[in-house]
Amino acid sequence: MENHQVEVVVSSDRDSLTFAPVFNVAVPFIDRHISEGRSAKLAIRTNRGVEVSYGELARNVNCCGNALLDLGINPAERVIMIVKDCAEFFYCFWGAIKAGLIPVPVNTLLRAKDYAYIIADSGCTAVVYSPEFAAEVEAALEQLETRPRCCLLVEGKDNSLQSLIAAAAADLKPAPTTAEDDCFWLYSSGSTGSPKGAVHRHRDMVVTSQFYGVDVLGIKERDVCFSAAKLFFAYGLGNGMTFPLWVGASTVLYDARPTPDSTFETIEKFKPSLYFGVPTLYAAQLQALETETRDLSSVRLCVSAGEALPSDIFNRWRQKTGLAILDGIGSTELLHIFISNRVDDINPGSSGRLVPGYEAKILDETGKAVPQGESGRLWIRGDSTARCYWNKPQKTAQTMVDGWLDTGDTYIQDRKGYFHYCGRNDDMLKVGGIWCSPFEIEAKLIEHPKVLEAAVVGRADDAGLIKPEAHIILQNHDNAGDSLAAELLEHCKKGLAPYKYPRWFQFVTELPKTATGKIQRFKLRS
Ligand code: 3UK
Question: Is 306 near ligand 1, meaning CB less than 6 Å away?
């Protein structure tokens, strides 16, 4: 294993990293590049034409850290960031960490009531937000009984973060934290209940960058990363920020909603070597490629996560572009991907094998390990796991047990060590007394050329027994009707056990989804 941080990571072997007693993670990710001679190298390029070298990055991180300290924010206090993908995201995140404050990047697609909840729950001292989100953020601030002490826009004439950065001192000593100290939080939305703040430590980004970024992706200094998934997701934070910074590579930031067109344009213009997407976007891009040709020749590897990548999308993407998509499963709590396919070891339709540094166990309802080849609940242990959920001792105690994390996912591990996703624990169906994975039925339906997306949920039949119901978005909604339903049923009969056939087909034009693009099946259950 290459060790990218000789001074602060004392030793590393295949499965663990050892840190110096005083460790501030901004030093290896930001400052190290100056001492290693990378000051003039480009760290960031944006769709607005902004270019930031490693030297400018380190300087602006210091200035932003000082600006936050000058506002009177104290060590370990939280700075909520509702910030689009731009250079200031980096300055604020790393400036806060270097100064010993806790940045909390938040989903920028939320609404006022969600922001009000998160601001109150975090007990933050500051809220920093991009002008694009001012309406929702300011409405949230209105709703609060006590406003955080500092609320400031990233850009704008007076008192914006940008203007404070420009006026602040450029020297900043790293706060003398340790690898085990709290470093940043990420809120996880979850399909039910209120969002939970996962509290991550200084060591966590080192673990994901080394074990997944370097060991699985083989990321190198010459790579250029482009993540269609935004920085506020744990997935995007790794792809678009921590992995490139760990090896002195560069990143491309796009600050608006990713569409097939904007994503292809960004790839053609900035020529990334690593492209990170989600299955829904790959599916939409494939549809666009039916009628247009795009130049993806700079890309050496594509990555997918967030939800399982159907093998059909993998195969069509490879056929159309010649590129492999590495599917891997990650979570906010574990910070990044812990089970993944590899460039030289791809099993389409599976999540792949364990990433080094992580352990897995699959348990039945009584907490006993299931025999190999049987499905159960996936628990993961690894050094990037969040310390706790903020202010949620009960949820923490349920989910984080002896260093193990309950993913809430149902998985099967096969004889060769590949992990196969069978759905969220809470979305699994019992049909005729047999567990039935909505995911498997959806994958079958998506194979059909007339189907764009599918979501399968349990619905009670006349006898009150749960059976699968398919909600389907067609490539062309005009084809909806009984004859197409019969055609899809025939298609399902080729390859699915009879209890898995959908008993009803609903042709819809939209499926309810979370901000991260996951289908909210619970909203389809009636
Ligand atoms: C599901 C997957 C099947 C699974 C994430 C990469 O998605 C991320 O984090 P979240 O906290 O959601 C976690 C849950 O999403 N999931 C994610 N990836 C896959 N299911 N195959 C996949 N490849 O239910 C998991 O428990 O939003 C992804 C890196 C960092 C992340 N936080």
Answer: yes
Q: Is 329 in the pocket of ligand 1 (CB under 6 A)?
A: yes
Torsion of CA 309, 312, 313, 315, to 10 degrees: 110
* Domain boundary residue, one of 394, 424, 454: 424
Angle, vertex CA 398, rays to CA 210 and CA 183, nearest 5: 40
Q: Ligand 1: which atom is nearest the Cα of residue 407?
A: 26
User: How does pLDDT run across 278-336, given as a tens digit for each residue?
Assistant: 888 898 899 999 999 999 999 999 999 988 888 888 999 999 999 999 999 999 999 99
Give Dmax over CA atoms of the chain in angstroms: 72
Residue 334: CATH number of its domain? 3.40.50.12780
Please report whether residue 207 resides in a domain. no
Domain residues for the domain of 510 are: 429-525
Asked whether residue 23 falls in the same domain as residue 143, the answer is: yes
- What domain count does the chain have? 3
Distance 329 CA to ligand 1 centre (A): 5
Residues 404 and 458 in one domain: no
Which parts of the chain register pLDDT below 50?
A: 1-8, 10-11, 190-192, 433, 435
Neighbours of 117 (CB within 10 A): 17
Question: First and final CA of the chain: distance in angstroms?
Answer: 52
Q: What is the pLDDT of residues 46-66, one digit of tens each?
A: 999 999 999 999 999 999 999
